[in-house]
Amino acid sequence: MTLPEALIALAIFAIVGVTFVSALGTNFKVLLMTDQRTTAESLAKTQLEAINNAPYDFTPPYEYSKITLPYGYDIQPNGSDINHIAVVLIDPETGAVSGTDLGVQKVTCNVTCLWQSPPWGSVIVVESYKR
Fold first, then answer.
1. pTM score over 0.85
2. In 10 A of CB 51, how many CB atoms?
């Protein structure tokens, strides 16, 4: 084997190697994003179930307790107290925001993640209604 043949073989090997490593990196990033989304969906559903199972809150500021969250995840409170989820009062006739409690509350769970870009960026936002 001559020197030019060896250099060409080495260049081809390097290109294939770089492509392989790049593909592994992309797959890892997609796997991480999928795992974050799946965890966020599960946390949002669990939070909404906990709120739906809690007694209806008739007194302002209309808040429900947050569930216990794993490290690196948070549910934005949408209110002033970081340990509670605030809800918005809804008029059941029009679906618009109401100033008085007419028996329907809109719950929004905005799940964030430390490892999202930007850090603590939103992974998923889920809305539900409590009667």
1. no
2. 22
Cβ(109)–Cβ(69) below 8 Å: no
Mind listing the pLDDT tens digit for each residue in 14-62? 898 888 888 877 888 888 888 889 999 999 999 999 999 999 999 888 8
Residues 6+ away with beta carbon under 8 Å from 78? 85, 86, 108, 110
CA–CA–CA angle 79, 56, 49 (5° rounding): 75
Cα 21 to Cα 13, 18, 24, 31, distances in angstroms: 12, 5, 5, 15
Place of tokens 């392989």: 20
Residue 34 tokens, joined? 């999928």
Q: What's the half-sphere exposure (Cβ side, CA atoms, 13 Å) at 38? A: 6
- In the chain, where the domains are located: 3-130
